[in-house]
Write a structure and sequence with these properties.
Order of helices and strands: HEEEHEHE
Largest sheet: 5 strands, mixed
Shape: rod-shaped
Number of strands: 5
Structural class: alpha/beta
Length: 149
């Protein structure tokens, strides 16, 4: 029985506006959170020059060795440690000796700390403090590669 005479059946419709709103929000989210790779950088070709290759200036090095008993060596010369000020004076003398050996303006020497693994932490801190007092800002630590097991 058809009780609705004269009225046709309404077709269901899909409302696209909320669907588009949701897609735009997802698109904005993806655009904001995506990290772009460096492949999009400019492709440039650098100009060439026929000048001679620059000479490599190796920085001078001051090697400080600290053994497990707390003895210090600066460039393979044993030094006695009284306090950080005397160690700083020894570092200044080593830096001055390096500058005399190099002609021209030599770059600031690098202090390389070679500490035994059983050395106390305080011994290493004393060397760092002495380097700071001596005005030597470039300090690094030496380590050896671990042995494969």
């Amino acid at each position: 029985m058809n009780f609705r005479k004269g009225k046709g059946r309404e077709e269901p419709e899909i409302n696209l506006i909320p669907f588009i709103d949701v897609l735009l929000v997802i698109l904005i989210f993806l655009m904001v959170t995506t990290t772009y790779s460096r492949f999009t950088e400019l492709q440039i070709t650098l100009p060439t020059a026929d000048a001679d290759k620059a000479q490599d200036v190796k920085p001078s090095q001051i090697n400080i060795g600290i053994d497990a008993q707390g003895r210090y060596k600066i460039n393979d010369e044993a030094v006695s440690f009284l306090d950080t000020a005397t160690l700083a004076d020894d570092l200044k003398r080593a830096a001055a000796a390096l500058e005399q050996g190099k002609a021209g303006a030599a770059p600031e020497p690098i202090v390389i700390i070679n500490a035994d693994r059983a050395t106390t932490h305080q011994s290493v801190i004393d060397v760092l403090e002495a380097a700071r007092i001596a005005g030597l800002a470039k300090v690094t630590f030496a380590a050896q590669a671990s042995r494969p097991k």
